[in-house]
Amino acid sequence: LTVPGARANAVVWQEAEGVIWLFGGMGLGSTSATLGNLNDLWKYEAISNQWTWMKGSVNADALGSYGPLQNFAANNMPGARSFACSWTASDGGLWLFGGNGKASTATVGNLNDLWKFDPLTNNWTWMKGSNGSGAIAGVYGTQGIGATANTPGSRYGGVTWVDASG
Q1: pTM score of the predicted model
Q2: Among the four residues 33, 85, 140, 150, which has the most C-beta atoms within 10 Å?
């Protein structure tokens, strides 16, 4: 039987077709009785009533694999985390931001990395933010003006939404 283990503070997305995605949270990996953050990605399809493990580690507290910025690749994977923010874009992409956990090093802390998952290719890309953890300051720029250098600071437990324009 393939099912995700019990967990708290995971993130969930729902596609328009009713497919539900589950990522991370605090729980047990399948190979250890030690509680930790997870980075496993699961897909649930109501039509077949089946869970499918799509990506991520079977172990708790796995490090992320960042690769180059904005490059979808099979080896890219966000690190284990809980309390992250998530949303679904109009193009079907699944987005993940921040949380508390591990980035590319064993240091646990708040995160400010932004990831996009493409369900069609089953690949993640690191879009923006740091590949480190801890007190990462935001770059605010000029209020109301977008800029490539602007990035929110590290945080966990934030909220997200998508407006009418997607």
Answers
A1: 0.93
A2: 85
Question: Exposed (0-12), middle (13-18) or buried (19+): which is 73, by Cβ within 10 Å?
Answer: middle
64 Cβ partners below 8 Å, 6+ apart? 39, 77, 78, 79, 80, 102, 103, 104, 113, 131
Q: What is the pLDDT of residues 26-40, one digit of tens each?
A: 999 887 778 999 999
24 CA to centre of own chain: 7
Tokens of 116: 């996009």
In the block, tokens 């590949």 appear at: 131
Arithmetic mean of pLDDT, 63-87: 95
- Quick check: 56 and 77 in contact, CB under 8 A? yes
Q: What span, in angstroms and rounded, lies between the C-alpha atoms of 59 and 80?
A: 9
Helix, strand, coil shares of the chain as percentages rounded to 5?
0, 40, 60
pLDDT per residue over 110-119, tens digit each? 999 999 999 9
Strands (E), the chain: 7-8, 11-14, 20-28, 35-45, 50-55, 81-82, 85-88, 94-102, 108-118, 123-128
